Backbone:
């Protein structure tokens, strides 16, 4: 198939379909993923085409979804669990932390855990409480889990397939407010590992680091900064755990400045980890302290205030000014 | 029922007709789904009903309730008013004034019956569809709007109304309610006194799949807690029918925990009232917990974001229209001469006034100050949050200065 313009939601749908076609052991599991096609329609049409034995409308219980997926994985299946919204993952958190992440280690490799947990995450859609959170740090903190976030349709298509193929469990963050944004997708040539960090825009002055939902904000800020005469380099992490630090450190050693952008709260966060690693490993290249643009250390606010909470173009530019003027 | 009857047809054995139809291919239920649905819903003989869909009143020997014209008028008024502002909530969402609305349409009797069974000292733990319970607790409907307009996460003082915050994570509140009821017992509020208390916990059929509901029931029975588990079985958890959560009627689970369980006609406000009143009294006098399954139907979408035409049959909704919770009360009032046209007209006028006030309030709601983001994260000062608040306000002030130049 040649390149076409599709939404991120459609790209995920196509990626899931490709995985299901490639491997009859791939299962979809979750609340409303069957007939309804999921509340975001990411699994739209899959039950119709693959049957209800491969696309399972589960009882309404996240611990049940994850816990039974563990058992199915032990039995040789490759379950793909959909958590309906970020804030609903926590009933399933115990299973993720206690079983999903540790089965391989505990069994000294006798078991693998090829399980994918898809989590639509992040804010910006005017939703009620528990529907706009960025809980990636919880999962990045747990050894045994791979954590990734896609930011555009092409990555979504390939990354979901790589997640499903992966013998380790993958927590797969989908930027829900970007579901309807379109991008070019060429399904013809599978890229090398997409669980890797990439430079989205080359530059010389300052490294802007984002992932998932914040990438369009970061890229727009880079455009604006460039219009002001700066030369920003933009990095899309894609893999959040483990980190692929090479491209990050190469960039910072070149630019001497870094701004990390994430929706999640600041304290004990992924943005903090990246900042620490840059400081530890590229200290002598830094011309300014690493700056962060993050959510506040508060619960996610009511949606009428979310634009104040979320990183935006002005906040990123403000941080760029700070590191440039240091 | 004998176990062998439950499993006459293993679901994952391939059946020729499933393959031929392409299972799950449309919103027509598969044979398995029909069988599961029937098992989960079909035990009509257990349904406690006092006011039939035709408006015929038959007292129930186990659940006596004194019925007067004035009382029925009150219940009718309650149901009409909550339906009216519920419909207004839907309209406001469609017009972009609310980001979402969670309709209660069809569940008026299940909520008003339970809500009016409560005493002032009782405490209710809602899910997020309990606008009718909020009404009965005295929470003004406009106080619900902040959640759905996105100006706040809650809008009333839960202690003042003895009505907890809406709980969105499915089933969480069952444990919180069980714990609250433990406290009522520890405080000596269970007994024959006029001030004896009980707790009532609201949840849906979907929630019964969650571990929290199970654990809540285990804790409640372990501590003999004064709590009524009130399940509004509206038969749909977004797109998933109740047969996905349960092979047998939900109220039967109560027996497994060692508490009484009842299935009540959730569209019969008198039955809901009588059974809930009985259950709360059992709890407050030390015979709790109790489980009630109010068997009703979600007449509208799960929320305004949902499209039920993708997964359920219109004919099903049409059937339930005949069982409307308000219409049967109206018919009874008219037939028995307990209310005249002036009464019905006055309720309609009041409903329109409420809707207008509800709408007016909604469209005039202001975005809260930025300070709200940082407020009440902790009960007192917090160095880091306070610093972030100060930094952000200073940052915003920078824009104002720029604008002034």
Residues:
């Amino acid at each position: 198939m040649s390149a076409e313009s599709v939404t991120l939601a459609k790209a995920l749908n196509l990626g899931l379909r490709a995985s299901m076609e490639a491997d009859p052991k791939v299962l979809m599991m979750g609340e409303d993923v069957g007939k309804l096609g999921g509340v975001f329609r990411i699994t739209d049409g899959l039950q119709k085409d693959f049957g209800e034995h491969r696309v399972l409308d589960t009882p309404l219980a996240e611990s049940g979804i994850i816990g039974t997926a563990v058992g199915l994985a032990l039995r040789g299946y490759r379950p793909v669990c959909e958590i309906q919204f970020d804030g609903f993952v926590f009933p399933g958190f115990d299973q993720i932390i206690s079983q999903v992440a540790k089965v391989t280690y505990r069994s000294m490799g006798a078991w693998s855990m090829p399980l994918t947990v898809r989590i639509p995450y992040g804010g910006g859609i005017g939703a009620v409480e528990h529907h706009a959170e960025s809980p990636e740090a919880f999962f990045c903190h747990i050894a045994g889990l791979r954590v990734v976030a896609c930011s555009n349709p092409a990555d979504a298509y390939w990354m979901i397939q790589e997640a499903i193929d992966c013998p380790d469990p993958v927590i797969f963050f989908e930027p829900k407010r970007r579901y309807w944004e379109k991008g070019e997708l060429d399904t013809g040539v599978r890229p090398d590992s997409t669980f890797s960090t990439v430079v989205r825009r080359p530059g010389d002055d300052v490294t802007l680091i984002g992932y998932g939902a914040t990438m369009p904000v970061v890229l727009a800020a880079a455009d604006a900064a460039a219009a002001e005469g700066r030369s920003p380099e933009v990095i899309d992490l894609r893999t959040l755990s483990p980190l692929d630090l090479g491209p990050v450190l190469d960039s910072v050693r070149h630019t001497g400045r870094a701004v990390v952008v994430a929706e999640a709260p600041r304290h004990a966060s992924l943005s903090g980890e990246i900042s620490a690693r840059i400081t530890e490993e590229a200290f002598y290249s830094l011309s300014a302290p690493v700056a962060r643009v993050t959510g506040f250390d508060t619960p996610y606010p009511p949606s009428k205030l979310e634009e104040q909470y979320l990183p935006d173009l002005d906040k990123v530019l403000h941080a760029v000014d700070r590191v440039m003027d240091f | 029922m004998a176990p062998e009857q439950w499993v006459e047809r293993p679901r994952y054995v391939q059946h020729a007709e499933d393959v031929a139809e392409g299972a799950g291919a449309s919103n027509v239920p598969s044979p398995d789904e029909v069988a599961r649905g029937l098992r989960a819903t079909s035990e009509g003989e257990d349904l406690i009903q006092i006011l039939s869909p035709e408006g015929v009143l038959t007292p129930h020997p186990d659940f006596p309730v004194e019925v007067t014209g004035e009382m029925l008028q009150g219940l009718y008024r309650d149901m009409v008013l909550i339906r009216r502002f519920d419909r207004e909530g839907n309209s406001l969402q469609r017009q972009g004034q609310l980001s979402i609305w969670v309709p209660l349409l069809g569940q008026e009797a299940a909520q008003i019956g339970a809500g009016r069974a409560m005493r002032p000292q009782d405490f209710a733990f809602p899910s997020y569809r309990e606008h009718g319970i909020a009404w009965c607790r005295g929470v003004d409907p406009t106080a619900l709007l902040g959640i759905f307009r996105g100006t706040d996460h809650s809008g009333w003082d839960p202690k003042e109304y003895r009505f907890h915050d809406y709980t969105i994570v499915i089933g969480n509140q069952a444990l919180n309610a069980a714990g609250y009821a433990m406290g009522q017992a520890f405080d000596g509020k269970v007994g024959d006194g006029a001030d004896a208390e009980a707790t009532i916990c609201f949840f849906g059929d979907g929630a019964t799949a969650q571990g929290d509901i199970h654990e809540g029931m285990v804790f409640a029975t372990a501590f003999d807690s004064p709590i009524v588990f009130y399940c509004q079985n509206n038969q749909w958890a977004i797109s998933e029918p109740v047969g996905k959560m349960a092979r047998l009627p939900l109220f039967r689970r109560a027996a497994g925990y060692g508490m009484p369980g009842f299935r009540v006609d959730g569209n019969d406000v008198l039955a809901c009232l009588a059974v809930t009143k009985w259950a709360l009294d059992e709890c407050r006098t030390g015979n709790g917990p109790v489980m009630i399954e109010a068997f009703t139907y979600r007449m509208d979408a799960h929320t305004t974001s949902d499209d039920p035409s993708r997964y359920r049959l219109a004919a099903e909704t049409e059937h339930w229209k005949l069982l409307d919770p308000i219409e049967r009360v109206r018919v009874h009032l008219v037939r028995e001469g307990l209310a005249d046209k002036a009464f019905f007209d006055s309720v309609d006028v009041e409903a329109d006034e409420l809707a207008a006030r509800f709408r007016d309030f909604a469209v005039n709601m202001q975005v809260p100050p930025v300070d709200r983001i940082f407020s009440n994260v902790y009960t007192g000062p917090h160095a880091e949050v306070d610093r972030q608040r100060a930094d952000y306000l200073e940052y915003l002030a920078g824009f104002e200065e720029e604008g002034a130049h």
Notes: Chain B has two domains: 28-363, 371-404. The longest strand of chain B covers residues 227-233.
